[in-house]
Amino acid sequence: MKEKVVYWLTGSQTLYGADVLEHVAQHSQEMADYVNAKMPVTVKYLTTCKSSDEVVEAVKRVNSDDSCVGIITWCHTFSPAKMWIKGLRMLQKPMCHFATQYNEKLPYDTIDMDFMNENQAAHGDREFGYIVTRLRMDNKVVVGYYKDEEALKELSAWCKAAAGIAFSKTVKVCRFSDNMRDVAVTEGDKVEAHINLGWQVDYYPIGDLVEYIQKVTEKDVDAMMAEYGKKYTMATKNVEAVREQAKYEIAIDRFCKDKGGYIGIVDHFGALHGLRQLPGLAIQDLQSKGYGFGAEGDWKIAALGAVMQYMAGQKGTGLMEDYTYDLKDGLCLGAHMLEVSPLFAATKPEIQVHPLGIGGKEDPARLVFEGIASPEAVAVSMIDMGDRLRLIVQKIELVKYPHKMPNLPVGGLMWKYKPNFKEGVAAWIYAGGAHHTVVSSELSVRDMVDLGNMWGMEVVVIDEKTEINEFKKQLLWSDQIWKSRI
Predict the structure, then answer these.
(1) What rounded mean pLDDT belongs to the chain?
(2) pTM for the full model?
(3) I need a labelling partner for 189 at 20 to 30 A (CA). Which of 94, 230, 353, 408 fits?
């Protein structure tokens, strides 16, 4: 993500003279360099804008730079905001207004009008903020001293989301099946997603993949088996079943690359014509390499998973499914038939082969492991409300299994809901949350809210502050507001 750039644009004017502008540039460079060291992206001071023409030129450069994912604006001195209008209306990248200051404390003993004129962030913030509001721009505002850890965390979350938005615009999902018959929540408007999110979702018959599988050589499989041996523990004597999964992984990866760079994959246990197994180990390992995956045709989760894995730096993030409750202890066991990502593994995963009991194919190889624990994680669902997409973000706590489950050969997670079990489950259901989610121990509610806001999407948050009656009112108000936008 450090290859992505966020440009730092400072606002000022010529009124205060060349000496002040020299100080403004020095301070901006120093601050941008400090912030850069704390960010997941590269932050670069671009320029100090002092006129409408300079803002326009800066924005043109921002828009044309493919490596640029957004801008941070800072008003060092008073920056007359009408000069920002043309440029901001041209801006095609996300913007964060950093309401900060070069000095943390005022020099009470020496402060004079020269100092006041040069350090007018409080003045400039309000002028700039007004014109952004007047333009109805949905930007982020971060407040705090530029060396303050909390302010930097908030800015870092925004930078991750900005990079995620840029990545989202490149996402292509390859569907080897349609969604599961009669299942509603995996449906959705693919054209609308392409328009608003940049997601290209295409269908290919499973037979096209079978042709790629048939071209995989034994030498190719040997190399993949060696890769498996380094990462996982072989805990089966059925090596042929594992080699079959290796073929699938090689073929899927080649297919996705050859067909234009697909980074999301969708399959279905009911559409396996020409395959001996349901892809299990193959899909799990591909997720560890950046692919998003959606089961039973769930293309929204495949695309969302790819974006969130990118934002999380390929750590602790992937497909999950709410499977079954422990009602006594208030826990949810999340898993899937085969395809849970090894990015969730608390210990070295084992390759095992077991009957599946669904799909009518040979016993598939899969990775089996107990998932990680994390005091703070998120479960994220994207649903189609008919007139809009809704992003549902729930704060959860990942916990260790309270007991071993030797007869359940899957990779899985166990979690507690926020604010508590009953209200957490009820809120999820009231919001229309799906059974397929992307869970992440690396991303926060703030990360996901920033991402949803940049998408211009309805975002629903369930956390420790959620109270059901108020939550239901919020959903009702939100529904009316979003309908009024159509």
Answers:
(1) 94
(2) 0.94
(3) 94
